[in-house]
Amino acid sequence: MIAVENLVKRYGDLVAVNDLSFSVEEGRIWGLLGPNAAGKTTTMRILTGFLPASEGTAAVAGFDVFRDADKVKQIIGYLPEVPPLYPDQTVTEYLGFVADLKKVPSAKKKDAVARAVKATGLESVKGRLIKNISRGYRQRVGIAQALVHDPKVLILDEPTIGLDPAQIREIRSMIQSLKGERTIILSTHILAEVTQTCDGVVIVNEGRLKASGSLSDLTASVEHKDGVVLKVRGSAADAAAALRALPGVDKADLEADGLRVEWAPGADLRDDVARLVVEKGFGLLEMRPITMNIEDLYLKIVSGGVDQ
Amino acid sequence: MKAVWIIAKKELRAYFTSPIAYVVMTVFLVLTGFFFYSLVWWFNAQSMQAAQNPYYAQQMNINLMVFGPLFNNMSIILLLVLPLLTMRLLAEEKKAGTEELLMTSPISVWRIIMGKYLASLLVVAAMLALTALPAVFTFLYGNPELAPILNGYLGLFLMAAAFLAVGLFFSSLTENQIVAAVLTFGALLLFWVLNWASGSASGFWSAVLNYVSFFPHFGNSTQGILDTTDLVYYASFAFFGLFLTHAVIQSRRWR
C-alpha cells in the first residue's frame, strides 16, 4: 500500500532523510519510531505531497506521490504534528470546509462530517468554536479532519503528543478502532505507543533506517541474550563472585535492579544458578528472566549500538 | 472554480467573524464620509460666492470639485487600510500550520491564491459600494454627471485590486502579519510616489518611472478619463503580484 524507496531529503547541507526504504501492507498500522529530529515528520510530509523528495520515490496505492500528487492527496488523510485548525470555526463548520477541500461531493458532505464526528467522539462539542474546546478534543478534531473524506491511508504525525495519560489511551484505542480497511502510519518517539497500537515498526535515527519489520520479528531477532536477575538475602558481591566461577556464565554483575547473570543463548543455566545460590546459603529472594525487549533494541539503535 | 469559491467563502467568513473587516470598513467609511462632508461644505461655500458672479458660476462643477478630490483622498485611505486586509491571508496559514492542510489537499496552489484574492476583492467591493450612499444625495440635491463617478469608482477598484495583489505577495513571504502589513504599506507608498523621481531621470528612465508609479494612472480616473494604458497597468500589476505569490509558495517547498 505504501512503498518508500531510497528516499532522500536535503535542506541545504542538512540531510533530513537519508536513503530511507520501507513498505507497509494494506490494512496495517505501522509506527515510524525515532527520537526527535530523526526525519519522521519530513518522511510524512513527503508521503503526503507537502514536500518534494530530493531523491528516491514514494508511492501510495501505486500512485507516485510526486507525479500523481492529486490522486495521492485524495486517498490520504493527514494529521500534521500541529493539528491544522481554524480557531474561529466551529467543529462542524471546519470539518465541512475540509470535506470541500478534499472534494467530497456536496450530496455526501453532511454524512461524511457526521461519520467523522461519530468516529472520533466529537458529538458533544461539534457546535462549539474550536478555540473554546480542550486540547484533547482539538487533537480529535485533527484526526476527524484526516478521516472526513474516508481515506484509504491515514498518516498521523505524533497523534498523542501533549495529551494527558487518559487522553492518550483514548486516542490510541480510537486509532486501533480505525484499523481494518485503512492503512495507518503514525510517527512517535514513544516506544509504548508502538508496542500498544502498531503491527510493525520502522525505526529511524538521523534520517537513516535502523530497523524495520513486524514487532514479533524484531523482538525475536534481538532476544539473543539469556540470563536472570537475582535478588539475594546475603552478600550480593560474594554471590556474584561465586556465580562467575560457574561454568557457562559469561557475566555476573551487580546492577541497579539486582544481580544480573548472563550466559550464551541456547544454554539454560537457571537450574544451576538457583542451586548454587541456595546451596551456598546466599538466600534466594527473587529470580526473574531477562529478555531483551524492543525497548532495549530501540535504545541500542538510537544510541548507535546496533546497525542493522 | 468551485475550489476557488471554497477558499474564498472560508476567507470571507474569517473576515467577518474577526473584527478585521469591520474595523477596516468602518475606518474607511468614516474617513470617506468626513472628506465628502468637508468637500461638499467647501463646494457649498463656493456656490454662495458664485451666485454673485455669473462668470464664476459657469466654472462650478461638482464632479471636478467634489468627486475628483474625494476619489484622490479615498485612494490614499485605501493605501493605508488595504495592507490590513491582506496581511492575514497567507501569513496566518503558515503560522497556524493550516498551510499543511491546504497544501496536502487535492487543490492547486493557484486556486488557493485566487480564492484568497477573490475574498479580499469582494470585501473591497462591498466597502466601495457603501461609500456610494453619500453620492446618492448629490444626485438628489444637485446634477452631477454619472459616468465620471462610475469611472472614478472603477479606477479605485482596479487600484485596490493591484494593492491587494501586492499585499498577498508580502503575506506569502512571512508568517508575521505585522511584517506583511508594513512591507505592503512601504511598497505601495514607494510605487505611489515613484514618479517624483522621474524629474531627476531623463528620457527612457523618466518614462519608466512615470509608468510604474501608481499616481499618474490614478490621476486619470479621478478626472473621468478611462485609458486602456491604465487598465493594462493595473491588470499587469495585479497579475505580477499574484504570480510572485505563487512563485514564493512553490519555491519554499523546494528549499
Give structural notes.
The complex is a heterodimer of chains A (308) and B (255). Chain A has helices spanning 40-47, 69-75, 91-101, 106-119, 135-147, 165-178, 191-197, 215-222, 236-244, 270-279, 294-302; strands spanning 2-11, 14-24, 29-33, 55-60, 63-64, 76-79, 153-157, 183-188, 200-205, 208-214, 226-232, 249-255, 258-263, 284-290. Chain A is an alpha/beta fold and 308 residues long. Chain A has 2 domains: 2-220, Rossmann fold; 224-290, Alpha-Beta Plaits, CATH 3.30.70.920. In chain A, the strands form 3 sheets. A 6-stranded mixed β-sheet of chain A has the order 6-7-8-3-9-10, with helices on both faces. In chain A, helix 3 (91-101) packs across helix 4 (106-119) and helix 4 crosses helix 5. Chain A is elongated and about 80 Å long. Chain B is mainly α. Chain B has one domain (2-254). In chain B, 84% of the residues lie in helices and 0% in strands. Chain B has helices at 2-17, 20-50, 54-57, 62-96, 99-103, 109-130, 132-141, 146-173, 177-193, 203-212, 214-222, 228-254. In chain B, helix 4 (62-96) runs antiparallel to helix 9 (177-193), helix 6 packs across helix 12 (228-254) and helix 8 (146-173) packs parallel to helix 12 (228-254). The longest helix of chain B is centred in the first third of the chain and has 35 residues, at 62-96. The A-B interface holds A 11-12, 45, 48-52, 70-71, 73-74, 76, 78, 80-89, 93, 97-98, 100-103, 145 and B 3, 6, 10, 13-14, 17-18, 96-107, 253-255.
Offer a few descriptive terms.
heterodimer; A: 308 residues; alpha/beta; Rossmann fold; Alpha-Beta Plaits; 2 domains; 6-stranded mixed beta sheet; 11 helices; elongated; B: 255 residues; 12 helices; globular
What is the fold's blueprint, element by element?
The complex is a heterodimer of chains A (308) and B (255).
Chain A: E1 2-11, E2 14-24, E3 29-33, H1 40-47, E4 55-60, E5 63-64, H2 69-75, E6 76-79, H3 91-101, H4 106-119, H5 135-147, E7 153-157, H6 165-178, E8 183-188, H7 191-197, E9 200-205, E10 208-214, H8 215-222, E11 226-232, H9 236-244, E12 249-255, E13 258-263, H10 270-279, E14 284-290, H11 294-302
Parallel strand pairs in A: 3-8, 3-9, 6-7, 7-8
Antiparallel strand pairs in A: 1-2, 1-4, 4-5, 9-10, 11-13, 11-14, 12-13
Helix pairs in contact in A: 3-4, 4-5
Chain B: H1 2-17, H2 20-50, H3 54-57, H4 62-96, H5 99-103, H6 109-130, H7 132-141, H8 146-173, H9 177-193, H10 203-212, H11 214-222, H12 228-254
Helix pairs in contact in B: 1-6, 2-4, 2-6, 4-6, 4-8, 4-9, 6-8, 6-12, 8-9, 8-11, 8-12
